[in-house]
Amino acid sequence: RHFMSGGSADTAVEPPPSQNHKQPLPQHNGSVPASMKSATANESVTLSLSDYLTEVAGEHGLVFRPKKAQHLGKQVYQFGGVSICLDRNAVYVATNKGQGTDWQLASLENLLALAKASKATERKGAN
What we know:
Radius of gyration: 29 Å
Number of strands: 5
Strand content: 25-35%
Largest sheet: 5 strands, antiparallel
């Protein structure tokens, strides 16, 4: 008997519904129901920055792979002909200035331009 929810000692408490009456699962016939099609079309997909750059590199015919190097404890990647480092949602590009390597923040457009320019320079050097 429940006194806390405003019930009285005279009120009978109903037992919880039986757990033995389970609904059968719908059978999958290979087609997606229309209600699920609209639900999947409206769902957003979240990609990591690394996964996104993999997609972009593939679309532009560029190599994107991890290198055997780190910068400030972060993995360094090859993106086309340039070295990059990812930090949260930012991309840093390695530029060789003088004797050292300078890491500069780059937009996606800038990164693609540098990667394609480096790739073109590599092809000219190979000929």
